[in-house]
Amino acid sequence: MGSVTATVAPPTDSNVTRWFRTFGAIAVSGFRRYATYRQAAVAGVVTNTVFGFLRYYIFLAAAGASGRVAGYDRGQLATYVWVGQGLLAVIAIWGWTELADRIRTGEIAADLLRPVHPVTSYLATDLGRAGFAALSRLVPPVLIGLLLFDVYLPRRWATLPLFVLSVLLAVVACFGCRYLVNATAYWLQDVRGPLILWTLFSGVLAGLYFPLGFLPGWLEALLRYGTPFPSLLQIPLDVLVERHPVPTQVGLVGVQVGWTVALLALCRLVQRRAERRLVVQGG
Amino acid sequence: MAEPGTLTGPAPAVAPPEDERPAGRRSGVLGAYRALLGAQARSQAAYRTSFVVDLVGNVGATVFDVVTVLVLFGVTRELGGFTLHEALVIVGLSSFAFATADLLVGNIERLPRYVRTGLFDAVLVRPLAALPQLLLMDLPLRKVSRVVFGLAVLVASVTSAGIHWTAGRVALVLVAPLAGVVFFGAIFVTTSTVSFYWIDSGELANSVTYGGRDFTSYPVTVYGGWFRALFAYGMGFAFVSYHPALALLGRADPLGLPGWVGWAAPGVALVAAAIAALAWRVGIRHYRSTGS
Amino acid sequence: MSVIEMSGLRKEFTVRVKVGRLRREKRVVTAVDGIDLRVERGEMLGYIGPNGAGKSTTLKMLTGVLMPSAGEARVCGLRPVAERTRLAMRIGVVFGQRSQLWWDLPLRDSFDLLRHVYRVPAGEHATRLARCRDLLDLDEFLDTPVRQLSLGQRMRGELTAALLHSPEVLFLDEPTIGLDVVSKQAVRGFLAELGRAGDTTLVLTTHDLADIERLCHRLVVIDHGRVVHDGSIAALHSRYGSRRMVVAELDAVLSEPPELPGAPLQRVEADGHRLVFALESATVAEVVAGLAGLATLRDISIVEPDIEEVVARLYRAPVEVGGAAVTGAP
Predict the structure, then answer these.
(1) C229 — alpha (psi -120 to 50), left (phi > 0) or beta?
(2) Best of B56, B68, B143, B226 to disrupt the A interface by mutation (most A CBs within 10 Å)?
(3) Is residue A50 part of a domain?
(4) By the CB < 8 Å criterion, does B268 face chain C?
(5) B8 — contact with chain A (CB < 8 Å)?
């Protein structure tokens, strides 16, 4: 799994170029690897679509006769739901246990022998995966939304580039969270506990079951600044449906940047601790 | 569990004489299933800490389902024309029925794994029916916590919804949850048979099973168009919680169906069970095994 | 009545084959292509063939796991799929690469569970288990959870599990795959013992021909889903021209190769000091007598025909399938 083929750069290249080349090569291999799971992608799209219908109608019911709730109108709710169902697979919120499995079986040793830092190489693979998911899993629900529902389309020119950046940050931040949850396998015999807690809380706190705007304002703010969860789904969607004025939009992406940097730093720290432990205890 | 004395600890070289009597055929089969269940309980006890984690994790999922309903009522006073108290009766019926069916039958969604690891082959060469064996061999006892919570929501909701109790409604409040269990169980089995034909169907079955759970947690008036027609009446999910709840609450159906439809739930559940049994039989004949 | 009867047994699978980048095409693959076979009570049958020849598919149809596409199979007079649970009571199955045992439970508990599943009276169960414990040396790991057993220990457990209900037919799919030499010996010895008793019919698929030589009197070779040989090992040798060899070590080098009637010279080795003859119509004594007149014999040895070589040749040989010659898989 996850075989990595990095091109050996000629010695004239700078370190930075070489790093980008390696990173790019790993990302491409990640894309290719996930592109082989086409049948699973089809099944996933069907499931996302069914839940899209369910959530759309439920949110709409919450909006009631006025058609407005927590700063969203009907069209914005439709966009929130259908793009959200696609983003779910792009950030791969659930189901990634590869790192934990490799730690448990000891295969992680092979990753540590590579000249690329494990956090970097797993991140690159994950970006490749996200790239494939953006094509196979994001596009279909968005098309369904466009064809069958009166979705809200962004009106400001800055929204689309900001949304793309926001999604990219969400992918990296979600990767960071998943990496940390998986990395508990370095210390725990059985990682089901952390995985279950992650599955439980990530869905509800990221704004999947209901937009966090349905909560009291203070609670939404607390979750947004105090936890990384809204940065994974709610913020990209709020940016896209232009729930807030431009400065707030930019500010929200800033919050994402903060969380992403913090999570990646934490991943590296945890990895270093774990490796030291492996060296001392011999895995 | 069946005979703890002989199952645990070193087995006696010569068994007690009462074991010698040839058991009747029926009780023999039951004894076999009981032994399978006991083995499953002991296997899970081997992982005690995970078991506690699972117990908590499983109840958490159902708690969040109910929390979601409460949050929605935080921003609106009515959902699809139903108040919070009325909606909670629907949630209670759905949660209990789904949680119980999930405990008893839900693990059949792991059929693709059973096929891949060869467990399904092993089960087929034993002298017992395949489906009960699979269910008992992998009964997820950790999901008990969810059933208890679902039952608590159901009891709390029907006692606080101001139901005008009649003999018929008392009977319905006992029968409808059980019919829901049978119905969801049938849905689990039917959707699992997809993997006899398409082993990589992955989460496809979830769209109907877990989708059905979410669908039945809300009044069907919430949904619209062909989506409602398909799930509510095409697949029959309206009979799990919506129509029984209307009958219990004594409300007329905003969609215009007569009141007795709430009492049709057991019949619908039996039809679903028959379809599931048929799908399973046909599926097993299409089974292609894997590997060498 | 034969214990196992197959007539025109077929199994086809439809597979999707990648054609080009995105297109996939349905293709019908015939795994078992019309097998007619009868196995009598107490026979020990070796069922061999190259990978993908249809060995396991046949076994799965006989045990009720797979539904045949056409043809008929009877085991113990029962139709395997239709009367699966009744048949299960009378057969034992060991899939070498898959476990019948409960992963997290001690071996002993698995056996006890199977006693309930097969409804074996406790007394009989205890007797049979005691016998297996004795023959297969189970005692040292009887209380170990199955997941902690070595492959060899597990396989001994699997064999016991398959025999506790005293089946009339025992199906073994690759029972020695991946085992170390000692475990292989233990398993073979046990099966040979079982065969000697004479009331259990044994059907064995394997890649290890030593299993066959040690255990089976009858050998069925299949390739591309068809029977290409059915008979004794000796019959296989005579049919494919494999012969016993006589290797003679001589003191001196002969000036010209000797001609012995009924024993053509095959090879000359060790600078002419070693001569290899194939035994056709001649006996060993005639070869020795013939050589003794020519030179001083330092040593003489007889090499039995190598079954692996015969079978390898058999697999490579073109097989007539539906009129067109198809080369066997390597």
Answers:
(1) beta
(2) B68
(3) yes
(4) no
(5) no
Taking CB atoms and an 8 Å cut-off, how many pairs form between chains B and C? 121
Token readout for B281 is 């039989």
Query: Residue A29 domain-assigned?
Result: yes
What ipTM describes this predicted complex? 0.87
Contact between C125 and B118 using a beta-carbon 8 Å cutoff: no
**What is the rounded CA–CA span in Å between residue B197 and residue B199?**
6
Q: Do B31 and C97 touch (CB under 8 A)?
A: no
Chain-chain contact of A200 with B61 (C-beta, under 8 angstroms): yes
Inside any domain, residue A95: yes
Strand boundaries in A70-149, DSSP class E? 72-73
> Best interface-test mutation with A: which of B56, B67, B71 has the largest number of A CBs within 10 A?
B71
SS3 label, residue A162: helix
Tokens of A244: 């807030």
Q: How many domains does chain A have?
A: 1
**Is A1 a member of any domain?**
no
Nearest by Cα to C74 from C46, C36, C118, C33: C36
- Angle of helix A118-133 relative to helix A246-281, nearest 10 degrees, comes to 130
The whole-angstrom separation of Cα B286 and Cα C9 is 17
* One-letter amino acid for residue C69 of the chain: S
B47 vs C contacts (CB less than 8 Å): 104
Q: Specify the CATH number of the domain C4-238.
A: 3.40.50.300
Partner A contacted by B57 (CB < 8 A) = yes
B7 CB within 8 Å of a chain C CB: yes
The whole-angstrom separation of Cα C10 and Cα C32 is: 5
| A176-231 pLDDT, tens digit each | 999 999 999 998 877 888 898 899 899 999 999 999 999 999 999 999 999 999 99
Among candidates C95, C116, C174 on the partner chain, residue whose Cβ is nearest the Cβ of B118: C95
Domain positions in chain B are 28-286
What gap in Å lies between CA B200 and CA B197, rounded to an integer? 9
Q: Which residue has the tokens 């170990």?
A: C144
| Candidates B51, B53, B221, partner chain A, best to mutate (most A CBs within 10 A) | B53
Q: Encode chain C (330 residues) as per-residue pLDDT tens digits.
A: 799 999 999 998 887 777 766 677 788 888 899 999 999 999 999 998 887 788 889 999 999 999 999 999 999 999 999 999 999 999 999 987 778 888 888 999 899 989 999 999 999 999 999 999 988 889 999 999 888 888 889 999 999 999 999 999 999 998 888 888 888 888 898 999 888 888 899 999 987 778 888 888 899 988 888 998 898 887 877 777 677 788 888 887 877 778 888 888 888 887 888 888 888 788 888 888 888 777 888 888 888 777 777 777 777 665 444 333 333 333
Q: How many CB atoms lie within 10 A of CB A161?
A: 9
Neighbours of A88 (CB within 10 A): 25
pLDDT score recorded for residue C322: 37
With CB atoms and an 8 Å threshold, state whether A210 touches B202.
no
Q: Do B76 and A62 touch (CB under 8 A)?
A: yes
pLDDT one-digit tens code per residue, B20-60:
334 445 567 888 888 888 888 887 777 777 777 778 888 88
CA of A257 vs chain B CAs: smallest distance (Å):
29
C119, B23: Cβ pair inside 8 Å?
A: yes
The 10s digit of each residue's pLDDT in C141-182 is 999 988 888 888 999 999 999 999 999 999 999 888 888 888
Q: Which positions in chain B touch A60 (Cβ < 8 Å)? A: 222
Q: Where are the domains of chain C?
A: 4-238, 245-303
Quote the domain boundaries for residue A116: 15-281
Q: Which residues share a beta bridge with C301? A: C247
